[in-house]
Automatic annotation (TrEMBL):
Residues 1-142, 152-276 form the UspA domain. PANTHER family: SENSOR PROTEIN KDPD-RELATED (PTHR46268:SF22), STRESS RESPONSE PROTEIN NHAX (PTHR46268). InterPro entries: Rossmann-like_a/b/a_fold, Universal_stress_UspA, UspA. Belongs to the universal stress protein A family. SUPFAM superfamilies: Adenine nucleotide alpha hydrolases-like. Coiled coil: none annotated. It holds the Pfam family Usp. This is Universal stress protein family protein. CDD domains: USP-like.
Length: 301
């Protein structure tokens, strides 16, 4: 399903859970795996252009290979890539050049456990910027993931009815059909907004027909603070995958329902969170029509 996977790493070891998940996915799907570290920021702007000639990038590559080697035993072709530059720019550049199907990221902060609450809404973080701009799904993993069979059994998709959320719901439908998983499509209304009954009717009207053929598909409407309600739904439903849309920076952040909510959810969720902003097809060779029948389709770039 995933043919080319990139996982962003740092020499701190904080990304171990993300590396382990990416390696298990790569082994399962016989994917190409790239562990990518972007060096330079901690050394200062003036030294970025000197990192490669000095041999420091090679030293970092060796350190990363040693640190994460235990996870790469079943992925013999895994590559360690160390490049100088700005983290989100280089991760996105490499993902485009490799036509990557999936980017996996961990919390990417050494003081993650102590500072987690302060990271909520940090729009300038590498995680935020990559999930906003990536042309492929971005999976955020902050705890160990069980690589089981089937891989996903309970999927929750959060929508705010935006164009980006349309992509997230479509991708969630593909995943649910591929894995014959339970699918919950939910929306959280702010206090004073749509009532639950009105919201449920809207969910069914907008998404019902296009999710035909998924045996266990349901809709859920909640009211309150988005991140808290999404997390509660995931825990109550024993979700093993959350899918959301991360709005682009061009959208007014005061009007965006998700946006940094993706970060809030991803860093506290009981399962991986996948950010999806564009329409793309699973590259497993199988696609499904609205009735749930298999059709052949070319993968989208």
């Amino acid at each position: 399903m995933f043919k080319d996977i990139i996982v962003g790493v740092t020499p701190t070891g904080i990304d171990a859970c993300a590396v382990r998940a990416a390696a298990e996915f790569a082994a399962k799907f016989e994917s190409k795996l790239y562990l990518v570290h972007v060096a330079g920021m901690e050394q200062g702007w003036g030294s970025i252009e000197h990192l490669a000639p000095s041999g420091e990038t090679d030293q970092l590559g060796g350190k990363l290979r040693e640190m994460y080697d235990e996870y790469l035993g079943n992925v013999p072709g895994a590559q360690i890539v160390v490049v100088p530059g700005i983290p989100h720019n280089e991760l996105l550049r490499l993902a485009r050049s490799k036509n990557t199907d999936l980017i996996v990221m961990g919390p990417h902060t050494q003081e993650y456990e102590e500072r987690r609450s302060k990271m909520w809404g940090m729009a300038g973080s590498t995680l935020e910027r990559v999930s906003q701009r990536a042309r492929c799904p971005v999976m955020i993993v902050h705890k160990d993931v069980a690589c089981k069979e089937p891989l996903f059994t309970n999927i929750v998709v959060a929508t705010d009815f935006s164009d980006q959320a349309e992509c997230a719901v479509a991708y969630g439908g593909q995943m649910a059909r591929q894995y014959k998983a339970n699918l919950v499509v939910m929306h959280v209304s702010e206090p004073g907004g749509e009532g639950r009954g009105e919201c449920l009717s809207r969910l069914e009207g907008v998404y019902g027909k296009r999710l035909d053929g998924i045996p266990e598909c349901s809709f859920r409407a909640e009211m309150g603070e988005p991140a808290m309600e999404i997390l509660r739904t995931a825990r109550q439903g024993d979700a093993d995958l959350l899918i959301m849309a991360h709005h682009s920076k061009e959208r007014d952040p005061e009007k965006a329902f998700l946006g940094s909510t993706v970060t809030q959810v991803a860093l506290n969720a009981p399962c991986p969170t996948m950010s999806v902003n564009r329409h793309f097809d699973l590259r497993c060779g199988l696609m499904y029509d609205q009735g749930g029948q298999v059709v052949q389709a070319e993968a989208l770039a």
